[in-house]
Description:
- Strands 20, 21, 23, 26, 27, 29 and 30 form a 7-stranded mixed beta sheet that branches.
- The termini are far apart.
- The chain is α/β, with parallel strands linked by helices.
- It is globular.
- The longest helix has 33 residues, at 434-466.
- It is built from 34 helices and 33 strands.
- Helix content is 42%, strand content 19%.
- Helix 2 (17-33) crosses helix 6 (122-130) and helix 14 (229-248) crosses helix 16 (284-296).
Amino acid sequence: MTTTAAPQPSTVGLGGPVSASLEADLRSWVRRQGVVVWLDQAGHYGGFVDRLQALSDAGALPYEVRAFRGSHLALMMALDGVAAGTEKVPLVIYLPGFTEETVRQTPLFELYAAGVRYRKALDTLVTEAAAGRVRPDQIASFKAQPDMTLAGADAWLSALLDDAEGGIAAQLQAMKPTAVFDDLLTGGFVAGRISKLDDEDALWERFGVWVGLPDSWRDTTLPPSRPRAEDVAFVAASWALCVEYVDDLKRAPVSKHLARVADLPRPVVETCRTVAAHLRERHPGFYQRTADETEALLADEVDAARAEDLGKVDTFRFEEDKVLKAALAALDRAAYDLAAEWSDMRVDPKSTSTSFWLRDDPTRQSAWQLVRDAARLGQTIARAGERIGVGTSDGGGLEAAVSAYVERGVAVDQAHRQLEQRRMALLYPQLPEFETLRTRLDGMRRAWRVWADAWAREFNALCKAQGFLAGASQQQRMLFDQVVKPLTQEAGTTAYFVVDALRFEMGEELYRQMEGTPATTVLLKPRLAELPTVTEVGMNVLAPVEKNGRLHVSMASDTGRVQGFQTGEFRVSDPETRKRAMHDRVGGGTCPWLTLEEVVSRDSTSLKRSVAQARLVVVHSQEIDNAGEKGVGPAVFDHVMQKLRAAWHLLRDAGVRRFVFTSDHGFLLLEDSVASAQAHGRRIDPQRRHVFSPVAADHAGEVRVALADLGYEGVNGHLMFPETTAVFDTGRRSMSFVHGGNSLQERVIPVLTVVHRTAAGGSSVQYGIEAEASEGVAGMHCIEAKVEVLAQRSLDFGIPKDIELALRVPDAEGVQVELCQTRGKARIAGGVVVATVGERFELFFRLSGAVDARALIEIYHPSAVADVVPCVPDARFAVTATRAPVSPPSTPAAGIGAGNASWLEQLPESGVRQVFEHLAAHGTVTEDEAAVMLGGPRGLRRFALQFEAYAQKVPFGVRIDVVAGVKRYVREGSG
Length: 975
């Protein structure tokens, strides 16, 4: 059976527009609640209820109406059959003269308790009915009259609305405020009527109704000349912005211009907020000009504003400035939660309160991103606490300390690394509040160092008391036989990733990226790296070299360094001998040893052939450690993580279902300008974080362990470490990336196992990338790009909405790419750009390298999850030199000279190629010489018009000089 909704009763039948508004409100309540009990202590609505009941009896309302007329019994009898039963009948029960207290003393209380109470003050009703239909001052004037009645309110509002009928006024009344602003700003119908005085007056009247525009504000902001359409829009919009600002404010406004905002009805305030949001979205240029000019009129408000008083919406530019300064001050006083709250509102992609003033200002976005990462580091330090919290006399102390680090400390080190990565990519002098921001970030380095030193002291004290060697289940030397070998005994191939310097928090990040994989078991467990935490120890111990839990060490007599570990007939000391030891232990036809770069540069078909006869394939990565030792670790860490995920996907596509990811040791990230290093004997004795010594001597600020206590055989002596995160004074330059010591950051390594229960399914969708160069900002390059579906070979209901992208430089060695910011439908996360398929976005980035140059960039899909065709835009981008070359080249740099002419192919075959080839070889060409190459003056003029476009495609900069009246083109940069 179908039911037809009751028609809306006419305004006349109800008594007028105020009564109609009341009925609509009642109807909404009944629709949501079922039974509504209306308490009307003052008895304002008796006549209205009589009309309502008549309409209900005539079937004109979708609910029943019953009213108290002096007899409880009569009302109860009238309700018989309506309010009884288990199913609620839509019903309004009107109780004049009753309150919540007095109704309790009547037989109606049980019915009252079963329904929902409804009350509506006449003052409130008039405001709700009239707001947005007549001016706020007219509403206030009527409500100020004594003895207000519902009938009087209906007559008053009807008369005002009748006056507005006809002509432009009626047309405006039928339009939404946002539509009128669109019209005024785009030269529409209303804009064309501004010149007529009567129409202008009608428009001002309507803005007074919609946004409560007072005459005083119009007089303040309107130019003395005849107003244009944009002038009218400015006056109304500026007032709407003022209303939004005051409504968002947590205190009363200071400016006398804003005093009247508090008296505006709520619907008018909501209209102002809607108008402001609409202008920000649809007319950003007009909004920015309006906000800035309005701010200039509110100087006293700007002076008095405090960030704590401001709300969630930055209506005016000064609000954004105030909050940024306040957030930096909050970092200084360790108010990390407050700084995080402000920054999350501005840079969190899920936030609905992103500031308008950040949209087109990547430098301000960068500043806020750094503030947020700094605040997160502070928050994680606070949550982790100053102590590990494990006593030296507690049983199982080492394992308990590792558990505490995994549960609380890992988050601190991950936040610290991410802040350092962000600092390297984003902290440039063009940022607002640059000096203050840099000081705060330096302060966060010190805060992390204080925390890390405290945990290191406690961990070293625990090791000193209970021993430096953990139980067998957490020993690195037992990892191969306990984890890797059992997996290789199952059918198929197991991939064993041995990653130099992949510390635990990085493994945890990989775990979070992999754990949601369907039909897959992902486990992450910690182990303790062997001491000292250096590659020659840890990487060799990842092979099966232990015997009965002990290690036979080979030491170099001249340097005192570990050379490897003896196992059976040979010494394990390099990749070849590690591979031999692993292959001997697990068997199989082959045991491929591949570098990470080899894996990601091959396709799954090639990899499938390589692993076909193997029980174990080893993937070796040194990228993290190498980059750290070169001082560019934070710029590279995320790229290595991307490659690890890509290699995982490629090997899975090649048929590998079981994976183990682990590392030889972790590392510490210290500031380069760290306080003076810790002395230990002669500078040539120690390494940065440890010392081998034949003598059992204790030194202040150090801990010592006998090699025999570490289960080492074939060598005597002792290891000594700083008890904090300090480095030993070796006489060499300070390094920010160090390892070799006994801190939790260096010793706790990840053991990440991934077991797929089903084979990988191939993708039937191929994607492509469109990209072109756009205008850069504040030293950052910019490209505008979009990911699109190129082909879909079959129905695929699991097409991802987002695709990961990254940048690389295909034609120049040693150039680092720093992703800075995005604008549009993309975001930067984990060192990649996460772009929405089918949506355009802008990406801001920097290029740095050993020499100044101009390079192509390639946009590609780094994680091998989808089939994405890479894209190389035509334009070249400037590479900023970060360090001088060892010796200046005497010939043009690779990729620039005429001998390497691939870039010339992007230029027209006319004399344009000849001009730039001449520039590459000789460095300069005069205008007369260029004219000859280009075929005469006409060709020269065409060249001059297209010069900027040509210059973007060459691997060097070109400037135009005029010397002694002679114009010439001069090559800049390397060469």
